């Protein structure tokens, strides 16, 4: 009898822990954890590689936001980005979206250095669009909170380039 109840208990523990693991896994994949405050309605990809794959597959440009948690400029940009309805809507519908808190090994994503915040576009042919730049000549791919109209124009430009080039 002792053996039987031990076996039953271990099976129960296995069932519970695998359910727990699945629940944890599920929660990890929920977009709001990946959004990190950039927009909970947006479906975010987890890695640069996944972003490239999805861009190619869906024929949408990939938008990569490099940022750091303890960077005040990133925080300010994130707030403006998350509160801008037009940006949120375009990001949801027309782009593959990735926000990264670490550098990728792809040097093409840091053409003028590894600073944050930095927003770059990659088209579905997997070309990094170094030609889509922000307003600042010393940091070509940075945006400030007041630059949201400019970022919107650049998002539209990224979408237009696909139509004209592919």
Structural account:
This is AGR3 protein. With about 170 residues, this protein is mainly α. Helix content is about 50%, strand content about 10%. The chain has a three-stranded mixed sheet with strand order 2-1-3, sandwiched between helices. The chain is elongated, with a radius of gyration of 20 Å. Residues about 25-30 have low confidence and may be disordered.
Strand and helix map with partners:
Elements lengths: L1 H28 L1 H5 L12 H11 L3 E5 L5 H12 L1 H10 L1 E5 L17 E5 L25 H18 L1
Parallel strand pairs: 1-2
Antiparallel strand pairs: 1-3
Helix pairs in contact: 5-6
Fraction of residues in helix: 40-55%
The appropriate CATH architecture of the domain at 46-157 is 3-Layer(aba) Sandwich
Q: What is the element string, with H for helices and E for strands?
A: HHHEHHEEH
Distance between the termini: 71 Å
Q: Outline the low-pLDDT stretches.
A: 27-31
Keyphrases for this structure?
166 residues; mainly alpha; Glutaredoxin; three-stranded mixed β-sheet; 3 strands; signal; AGR/TXD; Thioredoxin-like_sf
């Amino acid at each position: 009898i002792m053996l039987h109840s031990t076996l039953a208990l271990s099976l129960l523990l296995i069932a519970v822990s695998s359910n727990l693991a699945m629940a944890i896994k599920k929660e990890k994949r929920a977009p709001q954890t990946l959004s990190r405050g950039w927009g909970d309605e947006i479906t975010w990809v987890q890695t640069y590689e996944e972003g490239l794959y999805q861009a190619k597959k869906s024929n949408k440009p990939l938008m990569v936001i490099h940022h750091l948690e303890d960077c005040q400029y990133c925080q300010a940009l994130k707030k403006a980005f998350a509160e801008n309805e037009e940006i949120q809507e375009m990001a949801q519908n027309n782009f593959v979206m990735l926000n990264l808190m670490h550098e990728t090994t792809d040097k093409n994503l840091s053409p003028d250095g590894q600073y944050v915040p930095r927003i770059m576009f990659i088209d579905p042919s997997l070309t990094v669009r170094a030609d889509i730049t922000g307003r600042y000549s010393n940091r070509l791919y940075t945006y400030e909170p007041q630059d949201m109209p400019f970022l919107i124009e650049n998002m539209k430009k990224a979408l237009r380039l696909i139509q004209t080039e592919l």
